[in-house]
């Protein structure tokens, strides 16, 4: 019986397991942005939105595509019924102008939702706990498609019932004629 294959096979299986564990570790680091539950030094800002779309806690907060923080908490204001989103911003980014606007965006057509910040030009900066005043809610794609499909007007200016819109020319008007001198 040939026993020389045994150690080689065991080495190959061991190497395969080490590579599999290493790839799982890389995936774990990539999916948590390197945080692994360790709290980074950050400060909180809040923002009010009327529509969150698919925004969830731990969603990234980005400026120009660069992640500068995450959504730490989502609450409902019981008086105004606005959604209050608490943003945990990395303390390295402590010079955010006070006229910065926040918008809920989506990465691609079916991608994850995130909070995008558009910095302003004011020299005054946010202090921890302050609220972003300029916000734009998430765009509901299905609602937009529904409004377009059932808006009632087509290219010819007629609504869905076939009657011309008030500003559309009637079909029975004669074409303009040229007058000859």
From TrEMBL:
It holds the Pfam family MlaD. Signal peptide: none annotated. Residues 152-181 are annotated as: Disordered. Coiled coil: none annotated. Residues 172-181 have a biased composition (Pro residues). It comes from the Bacteria. Residues 42-120 form the Mce/MlaD domain. NCBIfam families: OM_asym_MlaD (TIGR04430). This is Outer membrane lipid asymmetry maintenance protein MlaD. It comes from Luteimonas colneyensis. The lineage of its organism: Bacteria, Pseudomonadati, Pseudomonadota, Gammaproteobacteria, Lysobacterales.
């Amino acid at each position: 019986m040939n026993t020389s294959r045994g150690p080689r096979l065991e080495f190959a299986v061991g190497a395969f397991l080490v590579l599999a564990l290493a790839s799982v570790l890389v995936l774990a680091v990539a999916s948590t942005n390197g945080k692994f539950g360790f709290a980074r030094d950050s400060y909180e800002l809040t923002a009010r939105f009327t529509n969150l779309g698919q925004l969830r806690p731990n969603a990234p907060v980005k400026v120009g595509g660069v992640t500068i923080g995450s959504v730490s908490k989502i609450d409902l204001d019981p008086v105004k019924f606005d959604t209050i989103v608490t943003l945990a911003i990395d303390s390295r980014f402590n010079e955010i102008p006070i006229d910065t606007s926040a918008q809920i965006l989506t990465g691609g057509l079916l991608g994850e939702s995130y909070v995008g910040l558009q910095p302003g030009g004011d020299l005054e900066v946010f202090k921890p706990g302050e609220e972003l005043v300029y916000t734009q809610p998430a765009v509901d794609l299905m609602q937009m498609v529904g409004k377009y499909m059932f808006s009632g007007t087509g290219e010819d200016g007629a609504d869905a019932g076939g009657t011309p819109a008030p500003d559309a020319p009637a079909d029975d008007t004669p074409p303009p004629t040229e007058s000859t001198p």
